Amino acid sequence: MTDQDSKGASAASEPNSKTMPDAAVLVDEALAFIDDHEELVSEDGKKVRRRGIYLLPNLLTTGAMFAGFYAVIAGMGGDFRAACVAIIVAMFLDGMDGRVARMTNTSSAFGAQYDSLSDMVAFGVAPALICFSWSLSHLGKIGWTAAFIYVACAALRLARFNVQLGSADKKYFVGLASPSAAGLVVFMVWTFHEYQLESNAVVAALAALVTVLAGILMVINVPYYSFKDLDKNRVPFVVILAVVLVIVIVSWDPPTVLWAMAIAYAASGPVMAVYNRKKSESGQAAPATSVSSVNKEDMTQDL
């Protein structure tokens, strides 16, 4: 073999840097298949585009969604206590993500939409499937119809909340919030399960009634106090003592006390609506509980 032939063979065996991309290019091309979120935000009165998402609030939202998914798995396996505790964890994380977003100034449209999807899993699908696995399955078509009504109402409530972001009075919810509706259902399951009440026809009928009622309360046009104004406003010292007392009472019998609290809060909306209507008809000024007053605040991840 001549020297020219050996040089040609050597050149052919070496990689061509002009035709073969390096490792960095391959990595960039691989990551190009994963969409990098880009969002239009307002900064100093100007609209600018920012790429990426905020990690901390969305991490809490992911934790809430995982807790809801685990609750479904536990409920299908018959471990209703673990399922209900998982829903409580989801409630805590769902309440934290919005507050963390506001405290760290990391609110975003992506976070608000992601939070709604997480809530649909944790407070829409999970409670319905837990209640169906516990009792509604004994009712056949009536049982899964009641469960579906709850899921559909949860989806409608979350969709309505999304379109009202930035325009609704944040002091009040329009309809029962999805975490509260979930508590109304799962705390009932937990209470009956702890007292070892078998799922007979009467219990199954009660479960169906509560499930449907919780769904309807989510979509009716009734204001519910949101407690969001307590985050920034000062409160009397006695309030913290009341909180300590509530924690002690809950510790006595968690499922029963939590279900009683869920029932009381669910009933507060219709009761106050009827009370305000009667005061208005009698010529007295009703308290300002309008849910349509404009409040141009940043979008949050709280429901």
Write the layout of secondary structure elements.
Elements (H helix, E strand, L loop, with lengths): L2 H11 L9 H9 L6 E6 L2 E6 L3 H22 L3 H24 L5 H26 L6 H23 L8 E3 L3 H17 L6 H19 L3 E3 L11 H16 L1 H28 L22
Antiparallel strand pairs: 1-2, 3-4
Helix pairs in contact: 3-4, 3-5, 4-5, 4-7, 5-6, 5-7, 6-8, 7-8, 7-10, 9-10
Write up what this structure looks like.
With 303 residues, this protein is mostly helical. It has a single domain (38-267), classed as CDP-alcohol phosphotransferase transmembrane (TM) domain (Four Helix Bundle (Hemerythrin (Met), subunit A)). Helices cover 64% and strands 6% of the residues. The strands form two sheets. It has a two-stranded antiparallel sheet. Helix 4 runs antiparallel to helix 7 and helix 5 packs parallel to helix 7 (178-194).
What tags apply to this protein structure?
64% helix, 6% strand, two-stranded antiparallel ribbon, Four Helix Bundle (Hemerythrin (Met), subunit A), single chain, mainly alpha, 303 residues
Instruction: Please state how the strands of the largest beta sheet are arranged side by side.
Output: 1-2
The radius of gyration is 26 Å
The CATH architecture would be Up-down Bundle
Strand runs, count: 4
Number of helical stretches of at least 4 residues? 10
The first-to-last residue Cα distance is: 79 Å
Written as H for each helix and E for each strand, in order along the chain, the element string is HHEEHHHHEHHEHH
Structural class given helices, strands, pairing? mainly alpha
Please tell me what the overall shape is.
Answer: globular
Unreliable spans: 288-302
Number of domains: 1
